[in-house]
């Protein structure tokens, strides 16, 4: 079945397949176009593409970094988080 595919079509699909990582990276940058997030995107891309780390490992590292940034972001500005008591009512 594969032998019936013309060589020009097979070569074109090969070129398109090699372009997919660049297109995916451009789509990610398009969605996450904030200047503050670009170092994190580059770290994830380099960790997976060049260091050959597994996606799950990079996801765990990214989650840890995100939690650190989230919990320490308010402390840099001298802000504090106040606890708020909320009263719940029974029913819908």
TrEMBL record:
Its main location: membrane. The chain crosses the membrane at residues 43-71. The keyword Membrane applies. It is found in: Cell membrane. Keywords: Cell membrane, Membrane, Phosphotransferase system, Sugar transport, Transmembrane, Transmembrane helix, Transport. GO terms for biological process: phosphoenolpyruvate-dependent sugar phosphotransferase system. It is a multi-pass membrane protein. The keyword Cell membrane applies. GO terms for cellular component: plasma membrane. This is Uncharacterized protein. It comes from [Clostridium] clostridioforme CAG:132.
């Amino acid at each position: 079945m594969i032998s019936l595919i013309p060589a020009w079509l097979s070569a074109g699909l090969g070129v398109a397949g090699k372009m997919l990582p660049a297109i995916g990276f451009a789509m990610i940058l398009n969605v996450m176009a904030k200047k503050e997030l670009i170092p994190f995107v580059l770290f994830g891309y380099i960790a997976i593409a060049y260091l050959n780390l597994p996606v799950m490992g990079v996801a765990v590292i990214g989650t840890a970094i995100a939690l650190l940034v989230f919990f320490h972001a308010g402390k840099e500005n001298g802000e504090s988080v106040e606890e708020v008591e909320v009263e719940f009512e029974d029913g819908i």
